Amino acid sequence: MNLANRITLARIFLVPVVMIFLLVQFDNLGSFKVGGVHITYSECIAAIVFIIAAITDGLDGYIARSRKMVTNLGKFLDPLADKLLISAVLISLVEMQRLDAWVAVVIISREFAVTGLRLVAAAEGLVIAASKLGKWKTVLQIVAVAALILQNFPFETWHFPFATIMVWAAVIMTIVSGVEYFLKNKKVIPLA
Fold first, then answer.
1. Dihedral pair phi/psi, residue 152, rounded to 5°
2. What is the DSSP pairing of strand 37-40 with strand 31-34?
3. H-type helices in the chain, by residue range?
């Protein structure tokens, strides 16, 4: 197994670590208060691990391409790791009542729809590469999720709704990039 695939696997193994620090109450770690909101150090750890895991998404792809290490295993694991990470955290944020369920449904549905499109294309020997809008979507989702984990810290100090703005931006870009994938690749969709 090459380095790029090991990094991708590390991202998969970081998903339960994020979940543990996000969902389990570690009262002994303590907390701090910002603008009327209590943020636990456990949430800070969850955010840091989430960001590290998210960064590995770009890192494994860069290493695979630059060192000519692109493999079928990597092509399978990389999108799987991305979906696991973002879906697990979104569902957790819904459970914690920090995110409306419809937002998680829209984002997760788009991820599965585009994955399905890619599978149909792959069956026909075609590869659907990530678009610029798709990459922006990923960045906005990561920023939005991190802001939600940290309960809008540090922006809560100034009562600036950064997390809410990022969630809306992520939802809009998720929809726009999903539509773009389907419009650009409509030839792949079999008509009954």
1. 70, 20
2. antiparallel
3. 3-23, 41-66, 72-95, 101-123, 132-149, 162-184
Residues 6 or more apart whose CB falls under 8 angstroms from that of 166 comprise 140, 143, 144, 147
Measured distance CA(74)–CA(8) in Å, rounded = 8
Domain ranges in the chain are 3-188
Contact 14, 48 (CB under 8 A): no
Model confidence, pTM: 0.88
User: Which structure tokens are listed for 155?
Assistant: 């922006």
Distances (CA, A) of 72 to 13, 60, 63, 138: 20, 14, 15, 22
Residues with Cβ within 8 Å of residue 139, at least 6 apart in sequence: none
- pLDDT value of residue 4: 86
Q: Measured between alpha carbons, how far is 54 from 129 in angstroms, rounded to an integer?
A: 19
CATH architecture designation of domain 3-188: Up-down Bundle (1.20)
pLDDT digits (tens, 9 = 90+) for 102-112: 999 999 999 99
Q: Which residue has the higher pLDDT, 183 or 26?
A: 183
What are the tens digits of pLDDT across the range 74-127?
A: 777 888 888 899 999 999 999 999 999 999 999 999 999 988 888 888 777 777
> What is the rounded distance in angstroms from the CA atom of residue 151 to the CA atom of residue 6?
32
Contact status, residue 89 vs residue 145, Cβ threshold 8 Å: yes
